[in-house]
Amino acid sequence: MKLVSPLWSAALLALATALPAAEPIKVGEIASLTGKEAAFGQSSHKGTVLAVEQLNAAGGALGRPLELLSEDNQSKSGESATVARKLLSREKVVALLGEVASSRSLEMAPIAQRAKIPMISPSSTNPKVTEVGDYVFRVCFIDPFQGTVMAKFAKETLKARRVAVLTSVSSAYSVGLAKYFKERFVADGGEVALEQKFAEGDKDFKAQLTAIRAAGVDAVFVPGYYTEAALISRQARELGLALPLFGGDGWEAPQLIEIGGKAVEGTYYSTHYSPEDTAPAVQAFVAAFRARWNGETPDAMAALGYDSALVLADAIKRAGGTDGPAVRDALAATKGFAGVTGTTNIDPARNASKSAVIVTIKDGQFKFVQSVAP
Ligand code: PHE
């Protein structure tokens, strides 16, 4: 017995070919997939890919699948602007996700703004990023908050009264975080006894660390990225500096421990989320991420990359379309969106205010210390 008559199957085939497959919604992503900050870009990218796959499995947005077009800026300055232009003019993406690092977000933001295409940085914390214009958003906290969190932590937990600050002058993120940390630490009665500088890519920090050793401080704040933070920790220990070293979210990468080894034991940094969080949504995300990416545990960038795509899809659904101004307005109206990095409420300055998490390194592992509410 035939289940479908030949006539019927011919009719079904005609119908299927007459109905065009729903046109995908093109979303651009810009990340440092290779180069110096590849750990950041890869993490963020993996989180974003997982979110898009889960969204598509659940029907996409507006009955259409999302198509993620990812561009690698190779961690190079200048490159994010070039690939942003390409995604906008050639691919006609409806939104841009990225970048992780503030300096690179600052390069692509004016291009999104001029094109009236919304951009969401998952994790750039420098205030200037969203100040570029009303099409620029982020789903993370900003550095005035992060600087305050670490200033209070230094005073209250590390019991530091005099500190040194070692800043990367070529990173907008580092310069900003150093400034906000100092302001709060000094306002709370602490003293910044010494400031030292370095640049991205430097390998030798002995001169700065020798000056810090001579200054006799209680602790050293290093608002930089993980490669330099790990090298600074090693060289500090080699010079016999046994004081606490601490930093911000730029420290967050497995390479901190891989490069830093024993030297990063007992250091601290602030970040956006902890995979140790027992909230069911976080644990479901950690399990799904591990299943998708070879058992890897998602870090803060992965979690923020994931949330950035979910927040965008939610806005597209509420906008009822993909026009830049409509999606922008829907993003600006985001309230109470539950993600894996906490609840996203977009404020009038297009930032998200969220709790910070403080992490330490113990026995070669990242360990949750405390959560700090905004
Ligand atoms: N916040 C950093 C910046 O703005 C980037 C970063 C995000 C680093 C998340 C680590 C984790 O440049």
> Which ligands accompany this protein?
phenylalanine
| Mean pLDDT figure | 95
The biggest sheet, with number of strands, parallel, antiparallel or mixed sense and barrel status, is: 7 strands, mixed
Determine and state the CATH class of the largest domain: Alpha Beta
The chain-level structural class is alpha/beta
CATH fold field value of the largest domain = Rossmann fold
Overall number of structural domains:
2
How large is the radius of gyration? 23 Å
Name the CATH homologous superfamily of the largest domain: Response regulator
Reported CATH architecture of the largest domain = 3-Layer(aba) Sandwich
Our count of helices gives 13
Our measurement of the CA-to-CA distance between the termini, rounded to an integer number of angstroms, reads 68 Å
Q: Order of strands in the sheet with the most strands?
A: 7-6-8-9-10-13-14
Question: Strand percentage, roughly?
Answer: 15-25%
Dominant shape: globular
Order of helices and strands: HEHEHEHEHEHEHEHEHEHEHHHEEEE
**Unreliably modeled segments:** none
Q: Percent helix among the residues?
A: 40-55%
Please outline what is shown here.
The chain is of the alpha/beta class and 374 residues long.
Question: Can you tell me about this structure?
Answer:
The protein has a 7-stranded mixed β-sheet with strand order 7-6-8-9-10-13-14, sandwiched between helices. α2 crosses α12 (300-319). It has 374 residues and is an alpha/beta fold. The chain folds into 2 domains: 25-141 and 278-355, Rossmann fold; 144-271, Response regulator (Rossmann fold). It is built from 13 helices and 14 strands. The protein binds phenylalanine. Phenylalanine (PHE) binds at residues 40, 100-102, 123-126, 173, 249-250, 252, 300-301.
